# Entry
Amino acid sequence: MTGSRGQSVPGASRASKTQAADARLVIPFEDNRALTRALGEFDAHLAMLEDRLGIEAHPHGNVVILKGADSACKLARDVLETAYKRAQGGETMSPGDFEGLIRHARQEIVAPSSEGQAQISTRRRVVKARTPAQSAYIRALDKTDLVFGVGPAGTGKTYLAVAYAAQCLERGIVERIILSRPAVEAGERLGFLPGDMREKVDPYLRPLYDALDDVLPPDKVEKDLETGVIEIAPLAFMRGRTLSNAFVILDEAQNTTPMQMKMFLTRLGENSKMVITGDPSQIDLPPGVKSGLDEAVKLLDGVLGIEAVHFTQSDVVRRDLVARIVAAYDRASGKTP
# Structure
């Protein structure tokens, strides 16, 4: 049995309009073990609710008492009840997952939607969207074969693309995963690096490997790399190929030229999906050279079968400090007030 929707306990008369909006919600839960998991280690999730929503949250046995603005308390109640239901189902929730619930709940107030929080499932883990933009990104991957993920570092655009590719591979939707990236800034001087092709590009594709290891067993990743089920294909060597029955990811696409981007886009073959990710604020191309990512997103806007999802600093999920760094750079560049 899940917790009730909570009850409002009227407080004493207030002297101001701000105080008049305050509420006290008492939310009972029957399963203490599930409640403990929902509240996080040392009640860390309650502390997060207090910080994000500006309320007070106090646990007392199998009851949580919320105090603060009425709307914020109701939002906190909804988040707690969702976390409680998931805990009852045996789900383990990290602080990042819990913050994802808060962000989605806030979005429901601004723009109500029946679609809710999207997720990606592999045998090793279930990856739930932590922001509404991440949910939109996952749903775009569900619906279309070519998706652009554009935005700052730490928004999960590359990680989610890799997780979705792993899901498609496990379900037999595709036969292989192809990972590509401009190898050395804009120059791709692979020949000057020691080792075979994989050794040359390994340093540049490390973020993709890390994501693969997180959603697939590392021994499977290594085996699939050896057999070609997971292929490393430097952008410089993609010309002339047709990529069929594959999930293709181009990372750091802001460092492609318009010619490289057109070449890559036209590699897409039958029964394939392609995701192109990049951060327009981190272009390493020489001065005066236009980014192929910027041009492609504008040129292909509205084309059937193509979708672009734009992330902002509010979608940074890496940690609060990263979000503040992105905000500072955006302010300096005049992107935000």
In short: Confidence is low (pLDDT under 50) at residues 1-20, 184-188. The chain is about 40% helix and 15% strand. The radius of gyration is 23 Å. The longest strand covers residues 22-28.
